[in-house]
Every structure is written in structure tokens, then in C-alpha cells.
Amino acid sequence: MDLMSKGDLAQSVELAAEVLTKHLAGVPRLAVTLGSGWDELVDESRVESAVDFKDIPGFPIPTVEGHRGRVLKVITESGHILVQDGRIHCYEGLSSLEVSFPVFAYARCGVKALVMLSAAGGLNPLYIPGDLMIVRDHIFLFGDNPLEGLKLDGYPSVHVNLSGIYKTEWQEALKSALPSGVRCEHGVYAYVKGPTYETDAEAAFLRMAGADAVGMSSIPEAMCAAFLGLEVAMMCCISNTLLPSRALGLSHEEVLKVTRNRAQSIRGYLDSLAAQACALL
Ligand code: HPA
Questions:
Q1: Most CB contacts within 10 A, which of 42, 75, 136, 278?
Q2: Ligand 1, atom 9: nearest CA belongs to which residue?
Q3: 138 C-alpha to center of ligand 1: Å?
Q4: pLDDT tens, residue by residue, 96-154
Q5: Is the pTM of this model over 0.70?
Q6: DSSP one-letter string for 3-55
Q7: How is 143-154 classified by DSSP, letter by letter?
Q8: Which atom of ligand 1 is nearest to the CA of 198?
Q9: What is the set of domains in the chain, with CATH numbers?
Q10: Tens digit of pLDDT for each residue in 38-60?
């Protein structure tokens, strides 16, 4: 699907929103997207309804191991949340706008906040695998901007002010929802397109530029969420470290394993996150 050349983004968003609203019987205000390894947070007994990406017009189909491609309505102790189990990356051959399409659909359905969970490589030498990092800012210099060339009636200006995009109160909410004793820092996430991991020189360069972690996801969606007026927050599991020395045998399997272990150790996180988010929405 090439949304831009067809020029039918607004129409596709309407169709996707219709399907989501019908299948999920009402869409919650908080959406949480689960990247590599984070699917461990889903308690299937709490899933009230589910729709596969392949059944939602315009939704891209994930091709990467560990990304199922389902949108779920999950009941928590504080009400319903929407959970996107699996995500798409630009390195699967799609544009930034195409990978962000679900965010447009969620916004159209009335979602007000987007929390993204992902894996990332640690650049801050104090980080160790399994640490969590709440994103306080990002660097997006190497991808295509999802908003480039977007001219649509009824949408706001594409010149979005991204200063302060990750609001402190949302960062605190993500942190407060964690059990005590889990190592968690606030840091800067550098976006790279992937799919290759960084060379030593690239990792050193990103660290010098001020990044604490590097990853291949979520930032196009964060920018679209800001464009659409949604609150946005993001937390990564540091699945491997790149500095001061590269983890031997870095692989997607290792990234999944470390992130799954961390997610298993904070199993009730969606409940506590929903409770924290209630106070902000
Ligand atoms: N680099 C980029 N993306 C990643 C990494 C990494 O080292 N680990 C997990 N996602």
C-alpha cells in the first residue's frame, strides 16, 4: 500500500476506524503498543476482543518474529485499554507514514494517549541488559519523516513543535507503574532505520550526539501521535549494550529473550499503567 501516491489517507483512516470500533465494541482512550518481547505482558484471560491487522484496512502486516499483529481490547482493574500486540518497522520495507497508519486510526477512534514499549541497544555505559529506559527525548535524523508531503483537509499543520513531546507527568506515570526495585532511567532514544545493528563507529557517534539508547522503532508513530494531538510516552528495555563494548553474539533472538524476561518480571504492568494513566486522561 502506498498511502501517499493514492492520496487516500483520510479515507483509509475512516475505514480502519470503522472496523476497529465495530470489532472492539468501543475504543478505549489509552493505547499501548508492544514491540519485540513485550507481548509477555498480555494476559489472554483479560482480552475481551481482538482483531488481526490483516482484517483492518490499511494496517500493514508484521513480518518480524515476535510481532503478532493484533489489536486487543484488554480489561484492567482501571477500565479498558487498547493494546497493539506487535508493530511494523520501516526496515520491513514500508515508509514512516505507512508504519504509523495505526496511530491515525486510533486517533480517529478517540484514543487520547499512546504509550509505546520497545527494545533498544544501550549506549549509556551505565546501562546493563534488562534495564528499562523511559524516553525523555529522541533524535530522529536518519529516517523519512512521516509527515513529509502530507497535505490533508481537516488535519493540523505538519510543522509540529516536538520540543517537550514526552511530557514529564507521563514519564512519571510510566515509572510509578513499575514495581519497586526495577532498574529504570530516563534517557534519549536515537532512531535508526535498521535492520542492521550499528557499527562501533556509529554507536560512538550516537553516544557523542547525546543518545542513551538506539532503536529501530516507534519514533515515526510518536511524531504522528504528536501531530494528531495525542499524549505520547515511551519505555524501552535495554536488550543489549553497544558501549563501552559490543555484546558478543548480538541478534534478534537475544533482543527478544532479554526483553521477554524483563516483561515477565513486571507482568501486572498494564494494570498499573492503566491506573496511572486514568489520573492523566
Ligand atoms: N540497535 C538498534 N536497535 C536495537 C538494538 C540495537 O543494538 N537492540 C534492540 N534494538
A1: 42
A2: 120
A3: 15
A4: 999 999 999 999 999 999 999 999 999 999 999 999 999 999 999 888 999 998 877 77
A5: yes
A6: HHHHT-HHHHHHHHHHHHHHHHTS--SEEEEE-TTGGGG--GGGEEEEEEGGG
A7: S--TTTT---TT
A8: 1
A9: 6-278 (3.40.50.1580)
A10: 999 999 999 999 999 999 999 99
